[in-house]
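Thread title: Can someone regenerate the structure for this chain?

I was given the following input by a collaborator and told the matching structure tokens would be attached. They weren't. Posting the sequence so someone can regenerate them.
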Amino acid sequence: MTFTVDLPPALVEKLNAHVAAYGMSIDTFVRQALEISLIRAKGSFREIMKPVHDDFKRSGQTDEELDAFLEQQIAAMRAEKRAAATL
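Best answer:
Regenerated them for you:
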């Protein structure tokens, strides 16, 4: 099923930055966000994380590669916050 959603430019900018930072498509992000939102309304943490776990399994990434990616993302977020605090 296909939907058309009008988003304000500021939200589109944030969305584009987010998906680029995580290396995913907008379609994937929106699908995961919807799945998580619907599961959260009734589900456990395991159910909420299932789409993320499934994507990880399909990626073929190792646990070590995931750890390195997460550490890199955390460092980038911290650097971004430090830079914003100095403005």
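The chain has a mean pLDDT of 87.
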